[in-house]
């Protein structure tokens, strides 16, 4: 069938290799541009504090059995109190002087991230910068590849593939008779775009900024809401059963000492 | 905290460097990694690298890290000229850097110019109000001036935001203990136990404070925490062993008046006394008579 499809060496010299080189260079360039544009964003005090509260509450939940019941109750109230005033005040709680527990999130205050984004110009700016360094070069290179190299076969992979790979490898060629192991130039572009990550991490160090897939994950997980984790933590703290572990330790200590003496 | 293996390695390297065996840079890296305070050695060996252009150029970008390390060590040793030199070199390389600003503040502190240091720190905090190191420096400064209540205030402010920083909790606990504010210290130690439940030192310190507070309930709790320390250390902690003995005696004295005979049927105290005897026999035989006499007084040893 298409066994005798012979590729010109000029295609290798003028399409295949230049395309790969250009992709690598653009990747490197993008890395440096995004490095230049990156601003060290100062974290918001409230967000930092919320994160710390969550960690502390998690510690309390995990190690609750290591402190006496009284102390645990005082802390639980301190964390998840809603209306009741602190009765079992410990010195720390008095100085903090709060009515609502640390994990309490007032209703309605849980703003959705979308609104937060628009209210905070910094965040929008950040998004734009990310887009600048990601989408614009990609569109440009895609347009460039499309314009100059579209519609012909650029390479042949040395093993046969099934028909299903046609859409992956022969993007831009609408011929069903061509063997699937031939790669069109546009597909070569896509293969480079997603396949060069390993090379970049080799050239630019482990945490390079060109990690597209990771960034896409970030985009989808963008709506991280700290108030949600706060209330989740509060719920799980509410159901913790306190059982002081220390009495057990006395017996364990006894057996340890018996072993030690003998 | 430094593990035993790491400390052994550090000491070995230090010995090697002291005797001219080379490896100064590795030693300095290890010191930095373990965050230990061996300022004199760091100053000596760091300077020997910095003053040797050949060795210095070999470090490349790490040269500046070394400058910083030596500057801090020099401040610690009151070699203010050296520190000044290092900081000026760093300033020339990184103007506008906050990290250098911190160093300058520390230099001012070392000179005893508290007011100016305070000003420098507040300027830095204006730029970034969440700089943990500067907050901690402020606490240290208040402490150095003997202004303990100020230190407590700063620490509390710091902990309001960074409440999962257990080192700060420990510092606060120790300050409270030094001021005999045991109730507050109890809270801090509970916090420490919560964040690292398997560290016997916190259990021990908590038990100490509870024992000092006194009262039947606290004493019983203290005994339990001494017991957990024994469990966690495998009976090797002498203080915990003594603690169990003393707690038992104190509990006995307190509950003697009451008819309620809730004598816990445990022979933990006698076991602890025997363990103490064994330890003393092995480690300090000359003190053994003293120990047995004391334990007999406490009626823990027949």
TrEMBL record, chain A:
The chain crosses the membrane at residues 14-33, 135-159. Keywords: Membrane, Transmembrane, Transmembrane helix. The keyword Membrane applies. It is found in: Membrane. One of its GO terms (cellular component) is EMC complex. One of its GO terms (biological process) is protein folding in endoplasmic reticulum. The keyword Membrane applies. It is a multi-pass membrane protein. Pfam families: EMC3_TMCO1 (PF01956). Belongs to the EMC3 family. This is ER membrane protein complex subunit 3. It comes from Tetracentron sinense.
Automatic annotation (TrEMBL), chain B:
GO terms for cellular component: EMC complex. It is a peripheral membrane protein. Keywords: Endoplasmic reticulum, Membrane, Repeat, TPR repeat. It comes from the Eukaryota. Its main location: endoplasmic reticulum. It is found in: Endoplasmic reticulum membrane. InterPro entries: EMC2-like, TPR-like_helical_dom_sf, TPR_EMC2. Pfam families: TPR_EMC2. SUPFAM superfamilies: TPR-like. Coiled coil: none annotated. The keyword Cell inner membrane does not apply. Residues 100-209 form the EMC2 TPR-like domain. Part of the endoplasmic reticulum membrane protein complex (EMC) that enables the energy-independent insertion into endoplasmic reticulum membranes of newly synthesized membrane proteins. PANTHER family: TETRATRICOPEPTIDE REPEAT PROTEIN. Belongs to the EMC2 family. Component of the ER membrane protein complex (EMC). This is ER membrane protein complex subunit 2.
């Amino acid at each position: 069938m298409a066994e005798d499809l012979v590729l010109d060496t000029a295609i290798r010299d003028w399409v295949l290799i230049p395309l790969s080189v250009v992709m690598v260079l653009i990747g490197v360039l993008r890395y440096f541009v995004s490095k230049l544009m990156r601003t060290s964003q100062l974290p918001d005090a409230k967000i930092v504090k919320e994160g710390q509260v969550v960690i502390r509450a998690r510690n309390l939940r995990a190690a609750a059995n290591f402190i006496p019941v009284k102390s645990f109750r005082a802390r639980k109230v301190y964390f998840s109190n809603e209306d009741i005033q602190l009765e079992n005040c410990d010195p720390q709680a008095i100085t903090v002087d709060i009515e609502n527990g640390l994990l309490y999130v007032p209703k309605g205050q849980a703003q959705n991230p979308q609104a937060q984004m628009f209210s905070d110009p910094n965040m929008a700016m950040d998004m734009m910068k990310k887009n600048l360094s990601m989408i614009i070069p990609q569109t440009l290179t895609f347009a460039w590849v499309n314009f100059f190299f579209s519609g012909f076969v650029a390479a042949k992979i040395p093993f046969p593939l099934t028909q299903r790979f046609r859409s992956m490898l022969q993007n831009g060629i609408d011929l069903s008779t061509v063997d699937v192991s031939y790669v069109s130039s546009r597909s070569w572009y896509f293969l480079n775009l997603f396949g060069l990550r390993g090379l970049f991490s080799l050239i630019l160090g482990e945490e390079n900024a060109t990690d597209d897939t990771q960034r896409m994950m970030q985009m989808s997980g963008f709506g991280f809401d700290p108030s949600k984790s706060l209330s989740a933590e509060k719920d799980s703290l509410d159901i913790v059963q306190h059982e002081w572990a220390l009495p057990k330790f006395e017996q364990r200590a006894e057996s340890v000492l018996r072993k030690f003496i003998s | 905290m430094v593990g035993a293996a790491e400390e052994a390695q550090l000491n070995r390297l230090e010995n090697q460097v002291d005797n001219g065996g080379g490896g100064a840079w590795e030693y300095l890296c290890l010191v930095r990694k373990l965050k230990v305070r061996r300022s004199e050695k760091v100053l000596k060996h760091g300077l020997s690298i910095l003053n040797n252009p050949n060795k210095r150029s070999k470090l490349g970008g790490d040269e500046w890290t070394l400058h910083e390390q030596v500057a801090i060590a020099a401040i610690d040793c009151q070699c203010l000229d050296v520190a000044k030199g290092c900081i000026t070199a760093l300033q020339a390389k990184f103007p506008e850097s906050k990290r250098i600003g911190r160093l300058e503040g520390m230099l001012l502190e070392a000179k005893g110019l508290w007011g100016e240091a305070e000003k420098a720190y507040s300027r830095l905090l204006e730029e970034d109000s969440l700089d943990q190191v500067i907050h901690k420096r402020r606490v240290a400064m208040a402490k150095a001036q003997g202004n303990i209540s100020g230190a407590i205030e700063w620490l509390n402010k710091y902990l309001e935001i960074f409440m999962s920083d257990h080192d700060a909790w420990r510092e606060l606990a120790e300050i409270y203990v030094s001021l005999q504010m045991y109730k507050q210290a109890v809270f801090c130690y509970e916090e420490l136990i919560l964040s690292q439940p398997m560290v016997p030192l916190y259990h021990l310190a908590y038990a100490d404070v509870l024992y000092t507070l006194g009262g039947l309930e606290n004493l019983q709790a203290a005994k339990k925490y001494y017991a957990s320390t024994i469990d966690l250390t495998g009976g090797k902690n002498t203080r915990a062993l003594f603690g169990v003995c003393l707690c038992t005696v104190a509990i006995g004295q307190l509950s003697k008046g009451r008819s309620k005979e809730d004598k816990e049927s445990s022979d933990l105290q006698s076991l602890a006394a025997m363990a103490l005897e064994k330890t003393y026999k092995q480690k300090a035989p000359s003190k053994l008579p003293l120990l047995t006499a004391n334990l007999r007084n406490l009626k823990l040893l027949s």
